[in-house]
Design goal:
It comes from Streptomyces argyrophylli. The chain is built from 14 helices and 15 strands. It is an alpha/beta fold. It is elongated.
């Protein structure tokens, strides 16, 4: 920001002085306090300049600084900072370089550290990364130099206060025409299912929309590493993990949350993302009367999901045979999303699970993406039996 009558360097120095005075006093950067701080430095500015300085400082001290306009854009899902002059956004069509810049690398570091502090996380040379959720739900990830070479790297994932409806996802091309009927039938049949895909492909968005279709008389209990699911539903209980404090105490893991959720009378048990030993407790729960549960998992394809779960469960101490026995009885359907080269997120395939002659679980393609409707595959008949009448489900 530049101030009238001052060059860029003098304006920056003046604002630095005001920033220091406000930080020392702990005062909010109101116009009156900014004017007082300016007067204390021997500067007298007009009303417009004082208001401009106050807005700039408030954005930096209590907001997200230069990133505020980007985060306020309803189309933006991700904001990524890799250098002072390299700020990228994703509006659903791939990454775009924006004209937004920071004065220098130190400004990026200050913003990252302040946001981490707001989220209750430590971010300094001793702990050079942070993964947290801001008060408005935005997901924060930051890495400081020298781990991040050259400049602090900042990634912000925007969580919108309102979940998309299934109809909106059809209109956006995430779900093919008529595919919403199949997804609704999956929920109505109280099948346990898993949403798989890579990072940023829309797993959380789709799962939030699907949970919004659950009957209003059902109780949904969510267990998440970072609270991102926002289903439009009247009865949702949300549980979130917590890191250990600086003394190493107070850690709450996703495994802890799944165990607690089972004692909270869930009609639908939902794990935001399975990535560790919680998979054992989730599969056990889905095998003991908790129908209709669901989760997300990172996987390159629906066919890779059994191997992915096997790796997680083995690390947790569950042997391969036991895992596949649990998996065969616990889960029925895998819905896999992809993000194509144009940036469009869509359901690429729907698989059903079955055991082969060796006793291992594999996935069988039931539906694949089609521009006009889902295209039926060899597992369609099994899916039809699970969810209902094929005449009502569509597909071609």
């Amino acid at each position: 920001m530049t101030l009238p009558g001052l060059d860029r360097a003098d304006g920056a120095a003046l604002l630095d002085g005001v920033r220091r005075r406000l930080a020392e006093s702990g005062a909010e950067p109101t116009p009156a306090r900014v004017a007082q701080a300016l007067r204390e430095q021997g500067r007298v500015l007009g009303d417009a300049e004082v208001l401009g300085a106050a807005a700039h400082l408030r954005s930096e001290l209590v907001g997200t600084g230069p990133l505020e306009p980007l985060l306020a854009d309803p189309d933006v899902t991700d904001v990524l900072v890799s250098a002072p002059d390299r700020v990228w956004v994703d509006r659903g069509g791939g990454l775009e370089l924006t004209p937004v810049t920071f004065p220098d690398a130190a400004a990026v570091r200050r913003l990252a550290q302040r946001l981490a502090a707001v989220a209750g996380r430590r971010l300094d040379d001793a702990r050079p990364w942070a993964d947290a959720r801001l008060p408005d739900g935005t997901r924060l990830h930051a890495v400081l130099p020298p781990v991040a070479v050259g400049c602090t790297c900042l990634a912000l994932r925007v969580v919108r206060p309102r979940a998309f409806t299934l109809g909106e996802l059809v209109a956006a091309g995430t779900v093919p025409p008529g595919g919403d009927r199949i997804l609704r039938a999956l929920l109505d049949a109280r099948l346990s299912f898993l949403v798989s895909g890579g990072t940023g492909c829309g797993k959380t968005t789709l799962l939030s929309a699907l949970l919004g279709l659950v009957g209003p008389g059902e109780r949904i209990v969510l267990a998440e590493d970072s609270a991102e699911l926002r289903p439009d539903h009247p009865h949702v209980v949300r549980l979130e993990t917590r890191p250990a404090n600086q003394e190493g105490a107070g850690l709450v893991t996703l495994e802890d949350l799944v165990r607690q959720a089972l004692r909270m009378r869930p009609d639908r048990l939902v794990v935001g993302e399975v990535r560790g030993p919680e998979v054992v407790h989730l599969l056990a729960a889905l095998n003991t009367g908790h129908e209709g549960g669901c989760c997300t998992v990172h996987a390159n394809a629906a066919a890779d999901v059994p191997a992915r779960l096997e790796a997680l469960a083995t690390a947790a101490g569950l042997d391969r045979a036991a895992l596949h026995s649990q998996l065969a009885a616990a889960l029925s359907v895998v819905v896999h999303l992809v993000r194509d080269r144009s940036g469009r997120r869509r359901i690429a395939e729907v698989h059903v699970l079955e055991r082969d002659t060796t006793g291992l679980v594999r996935t069988v393609p039931a539906l694949r993406w089609g521009e006009r409707a889902f295209v039926r595959e060899r597992g369609w008949e099994r899916l039809r039996q699970l969810v209902g009448d094929a005449g009502e489900l569509g597909g071609e």
